[in-house]
Write a structure and sequence with these properties.
Length: about 180
């Protein structure tokens, strides 16, 4: 049922013909104060681009815990096998802890043995931005929430079929909404 609601919300937003960008940005900012266990639907501008969220550093520090801030805003990594969502096997949706954007469905989660929640596909490729990461002398692909820019983790090409991808995500960057 939630997937139907998400799909209908996305469809309605995509096909809206009036220019609502300022109003949408205001509503998104207001909606982001909602509890962490809710999905905040994506909003699109008239050119069908995801409306991005902009908060000051001080606002992020007020709304996130120290560890959430470290991972989401400073591109940190939680220790392997410590995340509270690693062993979650319930049905539902994984959302961005920073803004509530739906990112991954539980039916795409798998046990990669790496110590972080892993997914083989995002809910919508436009919701997860890929950024080249050459830190620590390695070439990797970082993944960020496309709406708030929060660091989620990395994506690798050693995942299962059908995509062959492994989105290796920090638990602390996610919330889980049960179906």
């Amino acid at each position: 049922m939630k997937y139907v609601l998400i799909f209908l919300s996305l469809s309605a937003c995509q096909f809206s013909s009036k220019n609502e960008t300022p109003a949408v940005e205001s509503r998104v900012s207001t909606m982001l104060e909602s509890p962490a266990d809710t999905i905040v639907p994506a909003k699109f501008d008239t050119e069908k681009h995801l409306v991005r969220l902009s908060k000051s550093d001080a606002e992020w520090k007020r709304s996130l815990s120290e560890m959430e801030y470290y991972v989401l805003r400073e591109e940190g990594t939680e220790r392997a096998f410590t995340g509270d969502l690693l062993k979650n096997h319930e049905t539902g949706t994984y959302t961005c802890r920073g803004c509530g954007l739906p990112l991954f469905a539980s039916d795409t989660k798998f046990n990669s043995g790496t110590g972080w929640p892993s997914f083989w596909k995002s809910i919508n490729p436009d919701f997860v931005a890929e950024v080249k990461d050459s830190s620590f002398g390695m070439m990797r692909t970082e993944v960020e929430c496309a709406r708030c820019g929060g660091h989620l983790g990395h994506v690798f090409d050693d995942g299962p079929k059908p995509t062959g991808l492994r989105y290796c995500i920090n638990s602390v960057s996610l919330d889980f909404v049960k179906e």
